[in-house]
Amino acid sequence: MPIKARLAVLLVLLVGGGTWWLVSSRRAAAEQGVVQGSGTIEATEVGVAAQAAGRIARVLVEEGDQVQAGQVLAELDQELLAADHARAQAMVVAARNNLANLTRGSRSEDIRARSAALTEALAAQRGARRQAQVAREAIASPPDLRAAR
To answer: Residue 38's Cα: distance from chain center in Å?
Structure first.
């Protein structure tokens, strides 16, 4: 066989073997879950918001900590929520008292106005209860925190 033909066959074998080696080594690395490369990695920043408004009582994570979706990051101060709830309950009691006074012999216009005030106070109370419930759900108990760690 002439030398040019031998060189051509050798060149084809080298290119084919090199291609096979390159593909098989990358496939093996992909199967093992190994990724190699160079570059810059930047962390993803995500805005975080509480489900209920309030003042933060305690922060449970530090900057740079890795967190999971649904993980409690901070605890809200319960005093403001409790005060809102108590205020809403007082409004309901006052509205019920006013309604009772008016239904004892007042005009129908006054009765309708006080009924509307009672309905509004009850709605405010339901809103305060919902807000307190959301805040309670957003705050983890000590056993939950230990389990999360």
So the answer is: 33
Q: What is the pLDDT of residues 14-59, one digit of tens each?
A: 999 988 888 887 776 556 666 677 888 777 777 777 777 778 888 8
Q: Residue 149 pLDDT more than 50?
A: no
* pLDDT value at 108 more than 60: yes
Per domain, the residue ranges of the chain are: 1-35, 50-149
| Residue 109: strand, helix, or coil | helix
Q: What is the pLDDT of residue 129?
A: 86
CA-CA distance, 104 to 106, in Å (whole number)? 6
Other CB atoms within 10 Å distance of the CB of residue 135:
21
Q: How far apart, in whole angstroms, are the C-alpha atoms of residue 139 and residue 52? A: 11
Question: Of 96, 70, 84, whose CA–CA distance to 126 is shortest?
Answer: 84
Distance CA 13, CA 41 (A): 39
- Give a three-class secondary structure readout of 2-63: CHHHHHHHHHHHHHHHHHHHHHHHHHHHHHHCCCCCCCCCCCCCCCCCCCCCCCEEEECCCC
Q: At what angle do helices 78-103 and 108-138 cross, to 10 degrees?
A: 160
